[in-house]
Amino acid sequence: MTPNKMFLLYLHTVTNSCFSARLENKSWLWHFCYGHLNFTGLKTLQQKNMVTSLPHIQTLSQVSEECVISKQHQEPFQKEKSWRARKALGFVHLDLCGPITPTSNGGTPIKVLHSDRSGEYN
Q: Which intervals hold domain GAG-pre-integrase (predicted)?
């Protein structure tokens, strides 16, 4: 640290580099450029001349990893409980844990937690 409370930085210069990717199959390139549009949709664009300079599209049997991951579906969580107890002890939740050391005063090494969802037994 300098007398005026500044810190000196010692930086090293780094050689600039550029990475590029090249696809041999133009069908994959157009698939990526159109947001992973399916190959049937790309062929429709080509057959109806909806896009200028679109090359011949081959229907490929492979699926890109991004398409598989993005098209997986998960149901949303329920906002309300699907089942609710109507009376005491109608729905009991138990948590078992153990063996616990040291043991309880009665010598029991297992702990059981009871919970009644209707709220009358705790």
A: 7-72
**Cα–Cα distance list, 29 to 1, 8, 43, 45, 66 (Å):** 53, 47, 14, 15, 14
Contact 94, 112 (CB under 8 A): yes
Rounded CA separation 24/45 (Å)? 21
Query: Where exactly are the structural domains of the chain?
Result: 26-71, 85-116
Sign (positive/negative) of CA torsion 66, 67, 70, 72? negative
Using one digit for the tens of pLDDT, what is the confidence trace for 5-53?
Answer: 888 888 888 888 888 878 888 888 888 888 888 888 999 999 999 998 8
Of 50, 51, 27, 25, nearest to 37 by C-alpha is 27
Token pair belonging to 48: 């109806």
| Run of H or E including 47 | helix 39-47
Give the Cα-Cα-Cα angle 100, 102, 103 (nearest 5 degrees): 70
